[in-house]
Amino acid sequence: MKVLVTGSAGHLGEALVRSLMDTHEVIGTDLSHSEFTNRVGSIVDREHIRQCMLGVEAVLHTATLHKPHVATHSRQDFIDTNITGTLNLLEEAAAAGVRAFIFTSTTSTFGAALTPAAGTPAAWITEEVAPVPKNIYGVTKTAAENLCELFQRNHKLACIVLRTSRFFAEEDDRRDVRQAYEDRNIKVNEFLYRRVDIEDVVSAHRLAIEKAAAIGFGRYIISATTPFTRADLADLQVDAPAALKRRVPEYEAVYARLGWKMFASIDRVYVNERARNELGWAPRYDFGAILERLKTGQDPYSSLSRLIGSKGYHTTEFTEGPYPVE
Length: 326
Fold this sequence. Notes:
The protein is of the alpha/beta class. It has a domain at 2-173 and 193-224 and 269-284: Rossmann fold, CATH 3.40.50.720. Helix content is 41%, strand content 13%. The protein has helices at residues 11-20, 46-52, 75-96, 136-155, 175-180, 183-190, 198-215, 233-238, 240-247, 251-258, 273-279, 287-295, 303-308, and strands spanning 2-6, 25-30, 39-40, 58-61, 100-106, 123-125, 159-164, 217-222, 268-270. Strand 4, helix 3 and strand 5 (100-106) form a beta-alpha-beta unit. Helix 1 (11-20) packs across helix 7. The longest helix has 22 residues, at 75-96. The chain is globular, with a radius of gyration of 19 Å. The mean pLDDT is 95.
């Protein structure tokens, strides 16, 4: 199968090219030169996309301006890349008879819906929660998702939207969190409710290619399987360590040995049940699996995650964090 991967110089794009290149003919396109990019160009350039699409049977569209670009790029930049670029790809994919179009979206589309009102339980985030975008990033990714749905409905282009949670290796953008917790401590905590390993993200994309034709259109949350249930939501807001001790009591000894601590409060939980049921997705790196790795002194992350490493979102270094926050 000939597969087009957009954003092939980025975190996920590189990971997808690496995983597919041994068994598929892969076209990697990106604005930046890289070992995994063989067509340098912009998704905003319609002719570039038309040439990339020749003979392609599946598209994995990861190219995007991300949240870290909100403070450094204009709203028009976001519209051009995230909406117009996606439209170009969808139109050319439909014209070329592509069998599967997989759009990498983000749990950031949920926006304000992720933050419950004071005094209420943590939010239980499924695909049924309506997005309330907080910035231009969320607005444009939501619009791009809707374009995918439109093209499936009107042009019968099988489209799967994967709303991925955090998988980047960069340090946290919140200064208070960086100062209070060691970086690996932060990321392992997040596997409980808002993080996923890139190896599992890759497997979700590969399954989406296989299932797209049968599904037609679907949106799926791609995040590590949480040990929490709805019954834990009230406690998570006021005493997350107590809620975790109830579900995973062995975490305390591991964390004590490492000098780590759990967040005092967790405000939302991403639920991946639909992806597991409909895509047949079986993520390997959940909190329990990572805890087992930590017990034996192993690195908590997958080999692919370590191989990809930190990409960085900007060539400029910022004094207040990995990128400016709007």
